[in-house]
Design brief:
heterodimer; A: 74% helix; B: Helix Hairpins; 3 helices; 0% strand; elongated
């Protein structure tokens, strides 16, 4: 069965190549190939897991580069973490591929879209299955490229093209730190294979010495870029310029989660004695989560609300990793993939029904007109807000419980209160969207004439809604727990026990989490039922303006980083033009030219002169040779 | 006074220099051509002298070949000069500067 993982990884690449090279003209065949590849990948994953079980810890490797005695392997790491992620990526990607068939039906770039989507699936699976840093980094960049291609999919729109560039360049900033971190690890530990590294650090935890914190933070840089943590968070909201299914797949469910996945994969590098990396990671995650949640409360574009919510939830996961909670982080990543993909796809359904209107204040009263979309969106909202018994409740609860397990009381209560606060704000802004979009009066003609989307788009919503509901109790957390904490006891609970488990294990966290969700809900209910415009700007004044303008981070970067960069570029340009081109190249060119002009005088065309010079030359040669 | 190798070589050098001087100084292509022949024969003289004084006939055989080839070369050279004169109406070297930049 060992060929199955290879097949899962390379099928989407084959689909991408075939579509790009041969079947561009045939829209249906292209889409079919792409969907077929990812669905086959999903089925093969199930087949592989059912035949070999979850409890693998193996690598499939083949030599990729061999220079002297230096080898780079191309390998697949198979353990519960990567298997679950493979299942998640192929599953969610499969659902979104099918949805895209409906959403992109009228687009002229249909085939190109599916080719890019397949390329993305391939790269993401590559990240998930990599067994070493080099391979991970290559797929990491490939994911960045496919993200660029898909964010800028409607490249004829300047905003989309700019957003693509912004996403790619911002990611590059993080990746710069990431690759330095990788090189640092390689230089100090002499290996890049995850298994080897873990083994070495297990044998000698102080192998990295004084560089432990630095190496951890440099590697975290990669996650800061890819998972859009502060201060590189600015690209994610702009990435919403891409088609909505892309936002759902790449910028909510999978790619942005790659940073969190990577942190969990290399956790042994972060969790070293004497390293402060985890504390910084937790602080960055918590700050991003709070910042993004606050900004989300005053956004009026439905996709931007969801984008900031994604940022906030990613911050939550990163914070959880920082608090040593890999199981909660991966658990939340998994459930978040379901409900955030669901929310985005539901939003896409609304946007398509309203002819690409994204302003929530031009929507309204869509509950009766789009019942399926309404119910699925509400399911996603309840899961995201953390309402029992939806999946988000369970995963968010494990993170809150993890915060409560911190030994340092300041950290413990600080992060716990932060988590509860963010949970309340999350519930508030999500229910704000629900109330404004689905109830109240229809605020535009488009909203008045909206109709439900075709069933090819509704079935993916239903599937994801089911998983958003049950994702918390199907044993995902137990699976991760068994991998990350192999020593802990294994319990087998019945379904009803699992449903009530959070209240039994961490009643304080569970109750406060629920209360926070309820508080958010009631605040949104009071403010946003039957209103025509947003009442908050009047009440909050300039604070609301600040939040609506995203706390002016873009402007700040524009004024500092980008301006500095422009100056630097201008200086480099001046140096190039005057020093290199003018002085250095000019001197060589001018010197050659002058010498040439002088030597040219010798060629007079006079036969006698030539004869004389020739005789003189011969005489000189003879003089030197003979005497 | 016996006449030795050096005397022949001095005559040969003088012949060569006269020929070279003619080539460098004279303007008429025909005269330049004569100068060239003079230089060639200076070389022949030197070869014959070496042959005679070293008791080796190779040099004399060599000279026969040179004279034969020189005869052919003269025929070609003169034909070129005639062709040049027909085309340009001149055999003066300073008028023939087409190759100058």
């Amino acid at each position: 069965m060992n060929f199955l993982p290879w097949l899962i990884l390379f099928l989407p690449l084959c689909a991408c190549a075939t579509i790009t090279l041969f079947t561009q003209r045939d829209r249906k065949l292209s889409a079919g190939l792409s969907i077929g590849a990812v669905v086959a990948g999903f089925l093969f994953s199930i087949l592989f897991i059912s035949s070999s079980g979850w409890n693998l810890n193996t690598e499939l490797t083949t030599t990729w580069l061999s220079v002297g005695d230096f080898h780079i392997d191309f390998g697949l790491r198979l353990d519960p973490l990567s298997l679950m992620m493979t299942l998640l990526v192929t599953g969610v990607a499969g659902v979104i591929h099918i949805y895209s068939w409906g959403y992109m039906a009228d687009d002229p770039g249909f085939s190109r879209y599916f080719a890019c989507l397949s390329l993305f699936t391939f790269s993401m699976l590559g990240i998930v299955l990599s067994n070493n840093f080099i391979q991970l980094f290559i797929f990491w960049e490939l994911v960045g490229v496919s993200s660029y291609l898909l964010v800028g999919f409607w490249f004829e729109r300047p905003a989309a093209a700019d957003a693509g560039k912004k996403a790619f360049i911002t990611n590059r900033l993080g990746d710069f730190g990431f690759i330095i971190g990788i090189l640092l690890v390689w230089a100090t530990l002499g290996s890049l294979n995850f298994g080897d590294l873990e083994h070495k650090l297990h044998a000698d935890p102080s192998a990295l010495g004084a560089m432990a914190t630095t190496a951890g933070l440099l590697i975290f840089c990669g996650a800061v870029g890819k998972s859009a943590q502060f201060p590189l968070h600015v690209w994610l909201p702009d990435a919403m310029e891409g088609p909505t299914p892309v936002s759902a797949l790449i910028h909510a469910a999978t790619m942005v989660a790659a940073g969190v996945y990577m942190l969990c994969r290399v956790f042994f590098l972060l969790n070293l004695p004497g390293s402060n990396a985890l504390t910084v990671i937790a602080a960055v995650g918590g700050f991003t989560a709070l910042l993004a949640a606050l900004i989300a409360t005053q956004q009026n574009d439905i996709k931007r609300v969801l984008a900031y919510s994604t940022l906030s939830q990613l911050g939550y996961m990163v914070m959880s990793v920082g608090l040593q909670g890999r199981t909660p982080a991966m658990f939340h990543l998994t459930t978040h993939a379901f409900f955030k993909a669901l929310l985005f796809l539901s939003a896409g359904s609304i946007i398509l029904a309203l002819h690409h209107e994204q302003n929530i204040w031009k929507m309204g009263a869509l509950r009766k007109k789009m019942p399926v979309t309404f119910w699925t969106f509400v399911a996603g909202t309840l899961a995201l807000a953390g309402v029992w018994p939806f999946s988000g409740f369970f995963s968010k609860d494990t993170i809150l419980a993890q915060a409560l397990e911190q030994p340092n009381p300041a950290l413990r209560y600080g992060f716990f209160i932060l988590g509860v606060l963010i949970a309340a704000i999350t519930a508030f802004y999500m229910f704000r969207v629900v109330f404004v979009v689905f109830s109240g009066p229809a605020r535009s003609d488009g909203a008045g004439h909206a109709a439900e989307s075709p069933s090819v788009m509704l079935w993916p919503l239903r599937i994801l809604a089911v998983f958003s509901l049950i994702g918390g109790v199907i044993g995902v957390d137990a699976l991760y727990n068994k991998m990350f904490e192999p020593l802990s006891d294994e319990f087998h609970y019945a379904l009803w026990q699992r449903l009530l488990l959070p209240f039994a294990e961490a009643p304080f966290a569970a109750t406060l989490g629920l209360l926070a969700a309820a508080a958010g809900f009631f605040a949104a209910y009071r403010l946003y039922t039957n209103v025509l415009t947003d009442p908050l700007p009047e009440k909050l004044g300039s604070t609301s303006q600040w939040l609506r303008d995203r706390l002016y981070f873009d402007e700040l970067y524009e004024a500092t980083v980008i301006r500095f960069h422009d100056r630097l570029a201008a200086l480099a340009n001046w140096f190039e033009r005057w020093i290199i081109e003018g002085f250095c190249i000019g001197l060589v060119r001018g010197g050659t030219d002058l010498t040439g002009r002088m030597l040219r005088q010798v060629q007079s065309g006079n036969l006698q002169t030539y004869a004389f010079l020739f005789a003189l030359g011969v005489a000189l040669v003879l003089y030197f040779v003979l005497l | 006074m016996t006449i030795g190798l050096n005397h022949y070589l001095v005559v040969s050098i003088m012949l060569f220099c006269v020929g070279l001087f003619g080539v460098i100084v004279r303007r008429n292509l025909l005269v330049i051509y004569m100068g060239l022949e003079l230089m060639l024969n200076a070389a022949n003289l030197a070869l014959v002298a070496f042959s005679r004084f070293n008791d080796n006939l190779d040099g004399q055989v060599f000279v026969f070949f040179i004279i034969t080839v020189a005869a052919a070369e003269v025929a070609v050279g003169l034909a070129l000069i005639v062709a040049l004169y027909r085309k340009r109406q001149t055999v003066h070297a300073e008028d023939l500067t087409t190759l100058r930049l």
